[in-house]
Amino acid sequence: MLNKITVIFDLGGVLIDWNPRYLYRKIFADEAEMEFFLNQVCTPAWNAQMDLDKSFSDAADELKTSFPEYTTQIQIWYDRWEEMIGGPITGTVEILEEIKQSGYPLAALSNWSAETFPIAYKKYDFLSWFTPVVISGEVGLVKPDPKIFHLLLQEVNRDPDDCIFIDDTQENIQIAQELGFEGILFSSPLQLRDQLEHLGVLQNGRG
Known about the structure:
CATH class of the largest domain: Alpha Beta
CATH topology of the largest domain: Rossmann fold
Strand content: 5-15%
Number of helices: 11
Shape: globular
Structural class: alpha/beta
């Protein structure tokens, strides 16, 4: 039955182009200093705390104590967060719309701060196509923790072998596959289209 399969999308890196460099290239005149800041100050590990359950205020205050010379740049992470979004990944959004029009249920599972996700949700209408949208910062769990995948399955009322999961991180795909999902490691809209055609979700040659 067509509608038995639920197609689950990661958001950042799959449907939405997010990169702090879009913002911080406006802040730092020197590319090397920007890279130092993003690799040693506002690091991916630091940002991941907010994807889980830490408030930006608490995370920023701790960081400002360690790097007082970057107090202004740290605060900008939240104050101008929207400037980190490069826009939708158009080819993937087109695929998403085709899947929606074909009648497949859609869900989303994303590591994202509860404080910043509402900004993106208001900005992009296609985020309202998902039922449910499971956001790590809202549920206090992050990928690749199997618990967040189990929570998602409860929300969609599906078994894992009735789900296709699309993500741009190998570790997340690996856990999903171990749990029984059909996993697709995203690298480009063209590659995603090819794999969804192979699985019969999209028609060959469509679009």
